[in-house]
C-alpha cells in the first residue's frame, strides 16, 4: 500500500522502532441507548445522547489521529434487538473513513451481531476484513525484511456458543507475531451470557502474542508472553457499567515487544458516589458535603461528562428529612452540579439512618409506628396479600418492556416487594415525621 | 417541664405581680393550690400561663389595663432539668424573649411540650369548667374511633390518618384503578407516540433487503435495454457507412487514371525539392565573392611596403621611461636637503642640555646613557617597595614596646593577689559545686510545708466528722475494726419494711371494709328475720325436725299429751311452710345474704391472718436491724430505722476517708524531712573534702553560703593567672615580628647596590641614592625620543643625495649610447629623448595592423574555395541521377515527381475511407463488396432499423429513471441518528415508568403498612387508656361506678359507665356531676398515658369541681396527688374549704393565696 511508506516512524520509549500499531476495542453496541434517568434533562440528552455513536466516532478519530495501521473490533458492534439500517449505514460510513485513510479493519462477530439482522445487510469497504465462520489468518504485507504479523479471527454465526472456539483457530505462523481476535466470555462474568468460554491459560497456550478479546464489558489485561486484553466497552451505558472506559492502543516494536496503552473514547462516565452524612446535622452542610464529593469525583476524571448516582450514607439526624425532601436535595444536587460543570446527578439514593436506636418502648409515636410495621405488620398475611394485589394490579398496566422490573420469577417478585415495602414504610414514616415536625414548629 | 415562677408584669389586672411555685421538692408530690376569691385574677393567671407557653393570643381579652403594645408576661421555667428565664410580649413573631431580652425561638418551650399545640393542651391538660365540658362532650359525641380521639388528643398528632390519605392521593397521581389520566397514562401515550415516530422514519433490515433487491432488478433491466439499443445503433451505422462509401470508390478510380503518365520518373529524395533552388542561387554568389577578395589582397600588400621604423631608440625604450621618475626625485631633493640639515642642528642642542642636567661630559655619546627596560623596571620596583619596608620596621618596634608594658602590668596585678603558684582546679572544688547546685534545686522544704498543712487539715476534718457519729463514742481507729452491714442489706431492709407496711395498711383497709360488710349483712339478716314467716332454710329445717320428733314420740306413746305436742309441732310446721311459700322471695334473699355473710366472715379471717403475718414480717425485719446495730456498738439505739442506720454508716465511711488522708499527709511530711537531712549531710561531706572548716550541725543554707564563697575566690585567682600567661605569649610574638622587619630592610639595601652596579650608574661613582636615581630616570625618559629623531633625519638626507647622483649618471650613459651631445642642462635632455621614442613607437603600431588585415583576407579566400568544392559535388549528383545536363532540367523532373506523390496520397486516403466504412481487411475485398451491393435493399433496411431504434431508446430511458428511483430509496435510508435518538427517548421513558411505578408501589405499600400499624397502635393505647380512665372514674365516683367500658355501635363506639350494682349507663345519660367526674377521669388517664412516654408537663385546672361533693373532691385531689408525684399540678379555686380538703388528701400541698399577696 502506498500509504504505508508515508507513515511516520514511531519509536517506543526505549527508542525501538515501532513496526505496527493498532487500536483494539469491542462491544461498541452502536446506537444502544443509555439507561439513565438523567436523560430526562433535555440539555443533557442533547449532550450525551447517543453516546455509543459518539464514542465510536471518537475511536475512528483516534485511529486517524494516531495514524494506526489497523482497528480490531472483537464483536458486538450493535445490540441484538436492533434492526434499524441507519445504524448499519452509519457503521459502514465510519469504516469507509478508515478505508480512505488506508487503515485496515478486522472484525469478528459477537453474540449480539449474530442475532441482528442488519449484520447480513451490511456492505463494508474492501479493506475491512470480516472474519467468517471458518477460521482465517491474514498476513500483513510489510515487505520482505521485517518479521511477519498475522491476524487470526473467527466469527461464530449463532447467538450461542457453548463450546470453546480456540481449537478452531489456525495454528500460529512460525516466526511471525500472531494476533488473535475472539469474542468470548472467558471463564464467565456476572451479567454476561456464557459465550465461547475458555480460560486465560488456554489462550496463553496458543502461542499467539496478543489476544484481542471482546464480550465482557469490564476491562481486564493479562501481561506476559501472551498479552490478553479484554478492553471492555468503550462507553458505559448505565450505572451498572460504571467507571472509566477505554480502548487499547497496541504497539508492536521491532524487538517484537508489545505495549498496551489505554485511551479514552467515551463522552460520559457513570459513577456511584457515596456521601457520608455521619455527623452532619445541618441541611446546608449536607448539600456542601454532597457538592464536595461530586467535585472530588469530577476532578479525578478526564471524560467529558460525569453522570453520578449519589448515595447518602452514614448516621445523621437529617436522615428522615433527607428521605422526605429527597426531591429538594436532588434539586440542590443538580444546582451544585451545574456549578461544578459537566457533572450530572441521575438519582439520589437514601442509605442513611437516624442515629437513635429504635426500641419502641415509648417516646416518639412515629417511631413506634415504624417498629410496629416491622414487627407486626410487614410479615402479616393481610399485609402480604394487600401488597401482592397492589403490585399485580399495577404490573398489569405497565408496558411489556417494564414488566420484569418486579423481578423475573416468584421469589424475585417477593424479594422486590419486601424491599419496596420496607423502603415505602420508611418513606411514609418520613412524611409523618413531617407532620410531627410541623406540630412542633 | 415545670413552671417555677409566673410573672404577670403587665397583664390583665396585674402589674408586676409574681406567683412563685418554688423549686421542685425532691420528695413528695408537686401539687399547688392557688386560692383567690372571685375577681382576684385566677382565670387571668391561667390565661397568662398559656400565653407564656404559646404566645399572647391575637385578640387577647387581657389588654384592658395595659395596652397590647405594653403587655408582658414572664417566668422561670424548668426545661430538661435546667431553669431558664423567659418573657413573652405581644407581637406576631419573635415574641418569646430570653433573660437578656433577646428574641429566641418558640421551640425552646414547645420542644419541651412534646409536640402538643395550644388546642390540645387546653383540651387535655389545662382545664376550666368550659374546656372540661366541651372536651368531654366531643368525646361523647365522637362518631369515630374513640381510641383515635384519645390517642390523637394526648399525642398531639391528630392528622396522621389525613396525611396517609393525602399520600395515597399522591400515589394515585401516578396511577389509579379505573381512573382516567395520571402520569402512567401520559407516559404510555408518549411511548406510543415515539414508536409511531420511529416507524415513520426507520427502515428495518428486512425492508432494506427488499429495497436492495428492487434496485438490483431495475439495474439489470436497464442494462439489457441499453445493450439492445446499442446493437441496433451499430447495424444502422454499418449500413449508413456502406452507402456513404459508394461515391469514394468512383473518385478512387479517377485518381488512378491520373497517376499512370507520371510513373516513369525515377524516385528521388524528397529533400531535393527544397535544395534545388538554394543550389542555383549559391552558384552565382560564390563566383562574385572570389573576385572581390583577390582585389583586397593586392591593396594591403602595397600599404605594408610603405612603412619605415627607428629600431635603435626602441631598444632603449625601457631605460628612457625610467628616466622620468629619476628626474622627479632629483628636483624634490634639491628643495628638501637644506631644511633637514637645519632640524638636525636643533636636536643636537637639546641633547646637550639634558646631558648637562645629568651631570655627564657633554661629549659623551648620548645613546650609551640609555638604560635597558630590565634595569629601569627593577629600579622602579625597588623604589616602590622602599617606603613599605621602612614603615613595617617602625610599626614592629612600637608594638614590641607596648607588649612589654602590658606584661609588666599583669605581673604586678598577680603579685597583688599573691598567688604566684600555679594550682590545677581541684576535683574537690567541682564536687563542692555539684553539691551546692543539688542542694539549691531540692524541694524538700516546700514539700514538708505542704504535707504539714495537709496533715493538720485532715486532722481537723476527722474531728469534725467524728461528731456526726454521735451517740457512738471511741477513737476513729476503732471504727476500722467494727463489723457493719452492707449497703445492699440496708437497701433490702428498707424495701422490706416499706412493703410490709404497705401490706399492713392494705389489710387494714380490707378488714375495715369487710367489717362494714359484715355489719351490713348481719343487720339485713336481722331485719329479714323480723318479718313474720320469713325463716331461713335452717330454721325451717329445725322446725321440720322437731315435727318429726314429736310424731315419733306420739307414735310410740299414742297418748293425748304426745298428740298435743305433735299437733302443735305440725301446726307450726304448716304455718312456717305456708308463710315460706308466701314469702319465697324474701326467703331466697335471706338465704343469699346468709351465704354472703359466711363468705365475708371467711374473707375477714383470711385478711386478719394476712395482716398479722405482715406485722410479724415487719417485726422480724426490725429485729434483724437491731441485731446488726448491736454488732456495731451496743451504745447505739437499737430501734434505728434503716435510713438512719444508712446515714450513720455514711458518716463512718467519711471518717475513715479522713483518717486515711491524715495518715497519708503525715507520711509525706516525714519523707520530706528525711530528704532534707540527706541533702545536708552530702553538703557537709563536700565542704569538708574541700578543706573548708565548718560546724557539724550547721544549717543547709549556711553551708551553701560557705561553699559558694570558696568557689568564687578560686574562680577569680584562676582568671588573673590566665591573663599573665596570655601577655607572655604576646610579647614573644612581637619580638619575632621586629626581627623580621629588620631583615627585610637589609635585604632591600643589598638588592639596590647590586642593581646599580650592573649599569653605568655604578661604574665610576658611589652608589646613588633613591632620589638621584628618580631624577636620572626622568631625564633619560626625555632623552630617548630626541636620539631617535636625530637618527631618522640623518638617514633621510643621505638617501636624497644618492637619488640626485643616480639621475646624472643615467643621462650621461644614454647620451653616450645614442651618440648625442649633452645639452648644458641635463633635465632638458631627458624631455627631448622621450619625444623621439614616442614617434618610433607610433610607426611600429601602423605596420602591425596592416599585417593582421592581410592574414584575415587570405583566410576568407580559402573558405570560399572549400564551399565551391561541396557545391560542385551536389550539383553533379543531381544531374547524374536524372541523366540531364543542367540544374534547370533537374528542376522540371522534380516538379513532375511531386505531382505524382500528391495523387498517390489521395488514392490512399480514399482507400482508407472505404476500408473504414466497410470494416473489411483489404481494399480488394471492399471493392468487391461495393460492386455487389444492392443500394435500394440497404436503404429499406435502414428505414426499418431507425424505427426500432427509437422504440428501444425510449424504453431504456424509462428503465433508467426507474433504477434511479430505486437507488435513491436505498440512499435515503442514511446513517443519521434520528432513530437512535428516538430509541433513547423511549428507553428514558420506560425508565421513568419504572421509576414512577416503584415510587407508586413504595407509597402504596408504605401507606398500607402504616394504616395497619396505626390501627394496632391505637388498639394498644386505647386499651391502656381505657383501663386508666376506668380506674380514675371508679376512684372519683367513690366506687359508685366500677369503671368504664365501650360498646361497639355500628362503625363507632359508645362509652358506657358500669355502676357498682353492675348497672350500665351510657355516658350521656349520667348526671352532670358524674359526667364531669367522667370527663376528669379521661383527662387523668390521658395525662398518665402522656407522661409514660414523654417528659411531664404542668397540669392546670381552674375550679372544675363545682359539681363535686366534698368526698368526691377529696378523691379527685388524691388523683391529683398521684399525678403530682410525676409532674407539676396546679389547681386554682375560690373555695376555701377545697384548700382544707386538698391538705387532707395531700399534706405536702403548697397553697398560694392570691388575695394575701
Describe the structure.
The complex is a heterodimer of chains A (about 450) and B (about 1150). Chain A has helices at about 1-5, 40-50, 50-65, 85-100, 110-115, 120, 200-205, 285-300, 320-325, 325-340, 365-375, 380-395, 410-440, and strands at about 20-25, 70-75, 105-110, 130, 135-140, 150-155, 175-185, 210-215, 220, 225-230, 245-255, 260-265, 270-275, 305-315, 345-355. Chain A has about 450 residues and is of the alpha/beta class. In chain A, α3 (about 50-65) runs parallel beside α4 (about 85-100). The longest helix of chain A is centred in the C-terminal third of the chain and has 31 residues, at about 410-440. In chain B, about 70% of the residues lie in helices and about 5% in strands. Chain B has 31 helices and 13 strands. In chain B, β9 and β10 form a beta hairpin. In chain B, α15 runs antiparallel to α21 and α24 (about 825-880) crosses α25 (about 885-920). At the A-B interface, α4, α6, α11, α12 and α13 of A face α6, α7, α8 and α28 of B.
What is the first-to-last residue Cα distance of chain B?
Answer: 26 Å
Strand order of the largest sheet of chain A: 4-3-2-1-11-12
> Could you list the spans of chain B in which at least 5 consecutive residues all have pLDDT below 50?
143-147
Q: Report the portion of residues of chain B in β strands.
A: 5-15%
Report the C-alpha radius of gyration of chain B, rounded: 81 Å
List the chains of the largest interface with their residue counts: A-B, 72 and 69 residues
Number of helices of chain B: 31
Tell me, rounded to a whole number, the average pLDDT of chain B. Answer: 83
Tally of individual helices of chain A:
13
Helical percent range of chain B? over 70%
**Shape type of chain A:** elongated
State the assembly state of the protein chains.
heterodimer
Unreliable stretches of chain A (pLDDT < 50, length at least 5) are: 1-6, 357-362
**How many E-type strands of chain A?**
15
Give the integer mean of the pLDDT values of chain A.
86
Distance between the termini of chain A: 81 Å
How many β-strand runs of chain B? 13
Strand content of chain A: 15-25%
Largest sheet of chain A: 6 strands, mixed
- The spatial strand order of the largest sheet of chain B comes to 2-1-4-5-6
Instruction: Please bin the fraction of helical residues of chain A.
Output: 25-40%
Amino acid at each position: 500500500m502506498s500509504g504505508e511508506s508515508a507513515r511516520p516512524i514511531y519509536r517506543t520509549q526505549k527508542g525501538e522502532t515501532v513496526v505496527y500499531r493498532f487500536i483494539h476495542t469491542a462491544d461498541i453496541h452502536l446506537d444502544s441507548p443509555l439507561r439513565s434517568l438523567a436523560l430526562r434533562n433535555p440539555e443533557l440528552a442533547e449532550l450525551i445522547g447517543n453516546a455509543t455513536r459518539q464514542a465510536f466516532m471518537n475511536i475512528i478519530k483516534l485511529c486517524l489521529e494516531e495514524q494506526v495501521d489497523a482497528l480490531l473490533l472483537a464483536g458486538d458492534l450493535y445490540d441484538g434487538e436492533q434492526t434499524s439500517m441507519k445504524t448499519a449505514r452509519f457503521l459502514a460510513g465510519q469504516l469507509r473513513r478508515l478505508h480512505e485513510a488506508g487503515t485496515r479493519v478486522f472484525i469478528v462477530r459477537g453474540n449480539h451481531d449474530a442475532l441482528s439482522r442488519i449484520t447480513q445487510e451490511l456492505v463494508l469497504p474492501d479493506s475491512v476484513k470480516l472474519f467468517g465462520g471458518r477460521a482465517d489468518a491474514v498476513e500483513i504485507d510489510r515487505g520482505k525484511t521485517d518479521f511477519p504479523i498475522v491476524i487470526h479471527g473467527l466469527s461464530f454465526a449463532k447467538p450461542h456458543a457453548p463450546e470453546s472456539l480456540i481449537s478452531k483457530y489456525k495454528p500460529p505462523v512460525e516466526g511471525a507475531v500472531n494476533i488473535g481476535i475472539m469474542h468470548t466470555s472467558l471463564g464467565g462474568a456476572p451479567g454476561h451470557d456464557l459465550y465461547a468460554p475458555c480460560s486465560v491459560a488456554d489462550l496463553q497456550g496458543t502461542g499467539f502474542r496478543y489476544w484481542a478479546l471482546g464480550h465482557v464489558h469490564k476491562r481486564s489485561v493479562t501481561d506476559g508472553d501472551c498479552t490478553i486484553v479484554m478492553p471492555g466497552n468503550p462507553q458505559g451505558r448505565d450505572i451498572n457499567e460504571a467507571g472509566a472506559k477505554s480502548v487499547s492502543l497496541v504497539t508492536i516494536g521491532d524487538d517484537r515487544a508489545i505495549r498496551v496503552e489505554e485511551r479514552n473514547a467515551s463522552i460520559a462516565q457513570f459513577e456511584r458516589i457515596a456521601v457520608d452524612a455521619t455527623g452532619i446535622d445541618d441541611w446546608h452542610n449536607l448539600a456542601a458535603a454532597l457538592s464536595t464529593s461530586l467535585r472530588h469525583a469530577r476532578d479525578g476524571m478526564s471524560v467529558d461528562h460525569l453522570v453520578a448516582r449519589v448515595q447518602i450514607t452514614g448516621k445523621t439526624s437529617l436522615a428522615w428529612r433527607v428521605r422526605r425532601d429527597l426531591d429538594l436535595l436532588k434539586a440542590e444536587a443538580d444546582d451544585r452540579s451545574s456549578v461544578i460543570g459537566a457533572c450530572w446527578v441521575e438519582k439520589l439514593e437514601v442509605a442513611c439512618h437516624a442515629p437513635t436506636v429504635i426500641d419502641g418502648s415509648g417516646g416518639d409515636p412515629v417511631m413506634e409506628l415504624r417498629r410496629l410495621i416491622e414487627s407486626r405488620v410487614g410479615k402479616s398475611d393481610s399485609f402480604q396479600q394487600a401488597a401482592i394485589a397492589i403490585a399485580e394490579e399495577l404490573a398489569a398496566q405497565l408496558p411489556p418492556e417494564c414488566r420484569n422490573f418486579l423481578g423475573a420469577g416468584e421469589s424475585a417478585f417477593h424479594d422486590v416487594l419486601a424491599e419496596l415495602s420496607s423502603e415505602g414504610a420508611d418513606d411514609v414514616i418520613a412524611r409523618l415525621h413531617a407532620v410531627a415536625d410541623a406540630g412542633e414548629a | 417541664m415545670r413552671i417555677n415562677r409566673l410573672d404577670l408584669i403587665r397583664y390583665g389586672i396585674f402589674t408586676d405581680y409574681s406567683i412563685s411555685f418554688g423549686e421542685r421538692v425532691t420528695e413528695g408530690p408537686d401539687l399547688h393550690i392557688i386560692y383567690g376569691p372571685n375577681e382576684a385574677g385566677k382565670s387571668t393567671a391561667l390565661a397568662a400561663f398559656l400565653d407564656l407557653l404559646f404566645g399572647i393570643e391575637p385578640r387577647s381579652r387581657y389588654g384592658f389595663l395595659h395596652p397590647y403594645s405594653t403587655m408582658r408576661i414572664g417566668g422561670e421555667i424548668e426545661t430538661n432539668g435546667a431553669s431558664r428565664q423567659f418573657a413573652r410580649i405581644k407581637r406576631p413573631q419573635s415574641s418569646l424573649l430570653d433573660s437578656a431580652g433577646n428574641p429566641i425561638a418558640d421551640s425552646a418551650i414547645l420542644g419541651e411540650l412534646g409536640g402538643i399545640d395550644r388546642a390540645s393542651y387546653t383540651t387535655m391538660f389545662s382545664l376550666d369548667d368550659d374546656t372540661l365540658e366541651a372536651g368531654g362532650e366531643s368525646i361523647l359525641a365522637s362518631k369515630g374511633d374513640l381510641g383515635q380521639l384519645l390517642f390523637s388528643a394526648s399525642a398531639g398528632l391528630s392528622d396522621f390518618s389525613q396525611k396517609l390519605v393525602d399520600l395515597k392521593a399522591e400515589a394515585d397521581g401516578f396511577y389509579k384503578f379505573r381512573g382516567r389520566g395520571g402520569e402512567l397514562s401520559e407516559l404510555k401515550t408518549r411511548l406510543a407516540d415515539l414508536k409511531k415516530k420511529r416507524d415513520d422514519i426507520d427502515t428495518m433490515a428486512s425492508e432494506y433487503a427488499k429495497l436492495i433487491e428492487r434496485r438490483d432488478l431495475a439495474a439489470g433491466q436497464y442494462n439489457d435495454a441499453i445493450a439492445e439499443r446499442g446493437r441496433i445503433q451499430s447495424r444502422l451505422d454499418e449500413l449508413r457507412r456502406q452507402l456513404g462509401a459508394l461515391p469514394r470508390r468512383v473518385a478512387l478510380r479517377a485518381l488512378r487514371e491520373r497517376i499512370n503518365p507520371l510513373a516513369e520518373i525515377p524516385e528521388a529524395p524528397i529533400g531535393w525539392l527544397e535544395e534545388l533552388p538554394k543550389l542555383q542561387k549559391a552558384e552565382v554568389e560564390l563566383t562574385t565573392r572570389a573576385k572581390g577578395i583577390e582585389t583586397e589582397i593586392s591593396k594591403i600588400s602595397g600599404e605594408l611596403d610603405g612603412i619605415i621604423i627607428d629600431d635603435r631608440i626602441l631598444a632603449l625604450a625601457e631605460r628612457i621611461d625610467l628616466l622620468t621618475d629619476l628626474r622627479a626625485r632629483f628636483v624634490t631633493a634639491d628643495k628638501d636637503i637644506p631644511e633637514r640639515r637645519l632640524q638636525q642642528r636643533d636636536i643636537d642642542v637639546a641633547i646637550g642640555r639634558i646631558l648637562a642636567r645629568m651631570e655627564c661630559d657633554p661629549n659623551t655619546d648620548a645613546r650609551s646613557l640609555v638604560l635597558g627596560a630590565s634595569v629601569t623596571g627593577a629600579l622602579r620596583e625597588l623604589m616602590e617597595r622602599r617606603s613599605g619596608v621602612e614603615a613595617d620596621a617602625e610599626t614592629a618596634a612600637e608594638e614590641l614596646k607596648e607588649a612589654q608594658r602590658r606584661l609588666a602590668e599583669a605581673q604586678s596585678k598577680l603579685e597583688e593577689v599573691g598567688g604566684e603558684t600555679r594550682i590545677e582546679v581541684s576535683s574537690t572544688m567541682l564536687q563542692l559545686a555539684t553539691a551546692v547546685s543539688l542542694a539549691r534545686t531540692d524541694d524538700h522544704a516546700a514539700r514538708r510545708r505542704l504535707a504539714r498543712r495537709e496533715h493538720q487539715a485532715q486532722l481537723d476534718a476527722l474531728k469534725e466528722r467524728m461528731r456526726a457519729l454521735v451517740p457512738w463514742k471511741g477513737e476513729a481507729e476503732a471504727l476500722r475494726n467494727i463489723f457493719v452491714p452492707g449497703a445492699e442489706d440496708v437497701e433490702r431492709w428498707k424495701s422490706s419494711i416499706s412493703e410490709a407496711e404497705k401490706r399492713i395498711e392494705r389489710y387494714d383497709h380490707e378488714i375495715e371494709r369487710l367489717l362494714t360488710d359484715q355489719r351490713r349483712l348481719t343487720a339485713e339478716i336481722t331485719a329479714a328475720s323480723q318479718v313474720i314467716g320469713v325463716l331461713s332454710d335452717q330454721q325451717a329445717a329445725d322446725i321440720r325436725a322437731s315435727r318429726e320428733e314429736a310424731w315419733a314420740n306420739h307414735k310410740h306413746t299414742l297418748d293425748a299429751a304426745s298428740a298435743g305436742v305433735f299437733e302443735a309441732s305440725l301446726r307450726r310446721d304448716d304455718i312456717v311452710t305456708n308463710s315460706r311459700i308466701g314469702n319465697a322471695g324474701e326467703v331466697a334473699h335471706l338465704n343469699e345474704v346468709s351465704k354472703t355473710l359466711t363468705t365475708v366472715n371467711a374473707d375477714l379471717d383470711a385478711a386478719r391472718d394476712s395482716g398479722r403475718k405482715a406485722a410479724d414480717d415487719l417485726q422480724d425485719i426490725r429485729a434483724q436491724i437491731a441485731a446488726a446495730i448491736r454488732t456495731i456498738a451496743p451504745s447505739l439505739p437499737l430501734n434505728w430505722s434503716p435510713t438512719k442506720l444508712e446515714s450513720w454508716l455514711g458518716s463512718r465511711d467519711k471518717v475513715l476517708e479522713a483518717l486515711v488522708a491524715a495518715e497519708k499527709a503525715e507520711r509525706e511530711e516525714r519523707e520530706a524531712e528525711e530528704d532534707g537531712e540527706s541533702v545536708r549531710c552530702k553538703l557537709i561531706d563536700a565542704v569538708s573534702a574541700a578543706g573548708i572548716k565548718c560546724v557539724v550541725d550547721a544549717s543547709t543554707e549556711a553551708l551553701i553560703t560557705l561553699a559558694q564563697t570558696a568557689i568564687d575566690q578560686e574562680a577569680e585567682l584562676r582568671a588573673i593567672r590566665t591573663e599573665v600567661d596570655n601577655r607572655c605569649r604576646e610579647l614573644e610574638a612581637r619580638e619575632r615580628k621586629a626581627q623580621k622587619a629588620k631583615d627585610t630592610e637589609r635585604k632591600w639595601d643589598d638588592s639596590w647596590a647590586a642593581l646599580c652596579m650592573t649599569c653605568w650608574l655604578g661604574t665610576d661613582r658611589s652608589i646613588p641614592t633613591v632620589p638621584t636615581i628618580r631624577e636620572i630616570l626622568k631625564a633619560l625618559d626625555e632623552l630617548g625620543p630626541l636620539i631617535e629623531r636625530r637618527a631618522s633625519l640623518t638617514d633621510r638626507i643621505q638617501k636624497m643625495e644618492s637619488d640626485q647622483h643616480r639621475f646624472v649618471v643615467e643621462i650621461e650613459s644614454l647620451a653616450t649610447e645614442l651618440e648625442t651631445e649633452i645639452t648644458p642642462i641635463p633635465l632638458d635632455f631627458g624631455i627631448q629623448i622621450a619625444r623621439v621614442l614616442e614617434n618610433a613607437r607610433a610607426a611600429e603600431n601602423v605596420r602591425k595592423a596592416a599585417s593582421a588585415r592581410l592574414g584575415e583576407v587570405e583566410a576568407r579566400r580559402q573558405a570560399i574555395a572549400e564551399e565551391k568544392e561541396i557545391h560542385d559535388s551536389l550539383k553533379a549528383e543531381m544531374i547524374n541521377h536524372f541523366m540531364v545536363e543542367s540544374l534547370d532540367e533537374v528542376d522540371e523532373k522534380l516538379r513532375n515527381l511531386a505531382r505524382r506523390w500528391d495523387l498517390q496520397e489521395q488514392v490512399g486516403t480514399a482507400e482508407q475511407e472505404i476500408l473504414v466504412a466497410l470494416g473489411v481487411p483489404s481494399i480488394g475485398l471492399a471493392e468487391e463488396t461495393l460492386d455487389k451491393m444492392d443500394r435500394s435493399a440497404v436503404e429499406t433496411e435502414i428505414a426499418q432499423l431507425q424505427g426500432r431504434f427509437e422504440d428501444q431508446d425510449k424504453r431504456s430511458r424509462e428503465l433508467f429513471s426507474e433504477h434511479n428511483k430505486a437507488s435513491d430509496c436505498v440512499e435515503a435510508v442514511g446513517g443519521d441518528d434520528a432513530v437512535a435518538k428516538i430509541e433513547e427517548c423511549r428507553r428514558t421513558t420506560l425508565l421513568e415508568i419504572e421509576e414512577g411505578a416503584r415510587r407508586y408501589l413504595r407509597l402504596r405499600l408504605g401507606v398500607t403498612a402504616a394504616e395497619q400499624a396505626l390501627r394496632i397502635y391505637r388498639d394498644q393505647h386505647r386499651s391502656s387508656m381505657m383501663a386508666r380512665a376506668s380506674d380514675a372514674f371508679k376512684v372519683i365516683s367513690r366506687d359508685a361506678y366500677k369503671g368504664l367500658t365501650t360498646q361497639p355501635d355500628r362503625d363507632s363506639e359508645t362509652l358506657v359507665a358500669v355502676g357498682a350494682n353492675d348497672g350500665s349507663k351510657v355516658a350521656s345519660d349520667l348526671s352532670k356531676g358524674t359526667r364531669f367526674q367522667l370527663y376528669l377521669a379521661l383527662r387523668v388517664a390521658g395525662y398518665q398515658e402522656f407522661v409514660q412516654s414523654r417528659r411531664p408537663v404542668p397540669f392546670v385546672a381552674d375550679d372544675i369541681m363545682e359539681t363535686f361533693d366534698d368526698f368526691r373532691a377529696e378523691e379527685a385531689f388524691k388523683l391529683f396527688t398521684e399525678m403530682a408525684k410525676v409532674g407539676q399540678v396546679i389547681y386554682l379555686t375560690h373555695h376555701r374549704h377545697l384548700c382544707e380538703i386538698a391538705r387532707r388528701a395531700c399534706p405536702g400541698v403548697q397553697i398560694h393565696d392570691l388575695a394575701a399577696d
